[in-house]
């Protein structure tokens, strides 16, 4: 690992200098002096780095309490006037909340606006922070969506 770290540091710094010289704080070093100087340098080597989406505030009206509850991982709306389903602690639970068609379109529009993705029919997908939306919108059927929490 030490040898690999040394090579990485050498390649980076050599690539930013004239051939045979290393620049360090505006002073020229020969390559041999540079190698002596960094022999004990530990460059951390990371395994797989996975980006974690950050939580972004997004006002989704009646859904806000579900969004803020860490035990809820999914919100499913099957259409206007139909009670929402949530996945809480790996159990699907029917809520006492339903949305109007206008409210459903407003939620989809907020995801479109905040993500910068234009709305598309019939399937629209967008992610804002740690919230991922998959929506079905069509003039031939009622709008519906699933919001899942990522990360």
Please, could you describe this protein's structure?
Strands 5-4-3-8-7-6 form a 6-stranded antiparallel sheet. The protein is elongated and about 75 Å long. The chain has helices at residues 2-14, 31-37, 64-68, 101-115, and strands at 21-24, 27-30, 72-77, 83-88, 91-98, 123-128, 131-138, 141-149. The chain is built from 4 helices and 8 strands. It has 2 domains: 2-37, no CATH class; 61-149, Beta-Lactamase (2-Layer Sandwich). A hairpin with a 2-residue loop joins strand 1 (21-24) and strand 2. The model is unreliable at 22-26 (pLDDT under 50). The chain is an alpha+beta fold.
Shape: elongated
- Number of H/I helices: 4
Helix percent band? 25-40%
The radius of gyration computed from the alpha-carbon positions, rounded to a whole number of angstroms, is 26 Å
Helix and strand element order: HEEHHEEEHEEE
Roughly what fraction of the amino acids lie in strands? 25-35%
Q: Which strand order do you get reading across the main beta sheet?
A: 5-4-3-8-7-6
Summed over residues and divided by their number, the pLDDT gives a mean of 79
- From the 3D structure, determine the CATH topology of the largest domain: Beta-Lactamase
The CATH architecture name of the largest domain reads 2-Layer Sandwich
Instruction: Please give the domain count.
Output: 2
Total strands? 8
* Coarse structural class: alpha+beta
State the end-to-end distance. 31 Å
Biggest sheet statistics:
6 strands, antiparallel
| CATH C-level of the largest domain | Alpha Beta
Low-pLDDT stretches are 22-26
